[in-house]
Amino acid sequence: MKTDPLFRSYEFLVDKTDQAFLKMEKEHPECMRCEPHCSDCCHAVFGLFLIEAAYIRHHFGQLDSRVREEALLRGKAADRELRKLEERVRRRQDDPQMTGDALARERIRCPLLDETDECALYPYRPITCRAYGIPTAIHGKARVCGRTAFKRGESYPLFDLDGAYRDLFALSKALLKIAGNEDHDRASLLITVSRAISTPMETLLNVPPGGPDKAG
Q1: What is the mean pLDDT for each group of 10 consecutive residues in the chain (216 residues)?
Q2: Phi/psi at 142 (nearest 5 deg)?
């Protein structure tokens, strides 16, 4: 499966996100709080689009075997916590307090975060992680990490995370197409990091092993 062109398109989105982060860091350094071993964003609950899951799966496979094994063990622990969270959501689905905002406050450790609070795949981390720490627009609302010093009521440039998600959805549809999967609705599927690193690419894309042609 020829993923290289799509991965390059994805990396273009990554670069745009990084540039937005660097621009905010340059223009408002007093507001930024990101620093080595700050892992606030590494405990947020979020999902990956298929293109990101495939990209992470590809690079995860190139890590040292010991690093992979440790991450997979942490992934099992994260899955257990996610199942508990899903059960709480089911039990309280009529509770207005159990909203998207409430879920956003849940804390589950990312399996890629190692024991020294460093990301095992930092150069290949998802766009959501890269934009964390600067003001973003999500579902039409401004959001920012609570540890920053951006002031409520003041105006700051917003990184269009909604737009980035639309681009990720489009790339995920293209990925499904080249994989031979005509179920393009699957492009809206969000995948946990633990599942992305533990699942074969063909299973992620729901295609036979090797897809329409051999991987490459």
Answers
A1: 87 98 96 89 92 96 97 96 84 62 75 95 96 93 92 92 97 94 91 95 78 42
A2: -80, 135
Q: What is the DSSP string of 21-63?
A: HHHHHHH-GGG----TT--GGGG----B-HHHHHHHHHHHTTS
The answer to whether position 214 is within a domain reads: no
- By residue range, what is the domain housing residue 163? 4-203
Token pair belonging to 117: 């609070």
Assess if residue 105 is contained within a domain: yes
H/E element, 86: helix 65-91
Tell me, yes or no, whether 41 lies in a domain. yes
pLDDT at position 103: 60
How many domains does one find in the chain? 1
- Closest residue by Cα to residue 171 from 38, 11, 39: 11
pLDDT value, residue 188: 94
What is the pTM for the complete model shown? Answer: 0.88
Look at residue 70 and tell me if it is in a domain.
Answer: yes
Strands 141-143, 136-138: pairing kind: antiparallel
User: Hey, what amino acid is at 211?
Assistant: G
Q: What angle do CA 213, 4, 46 make, to 5 degrees?
A: 105
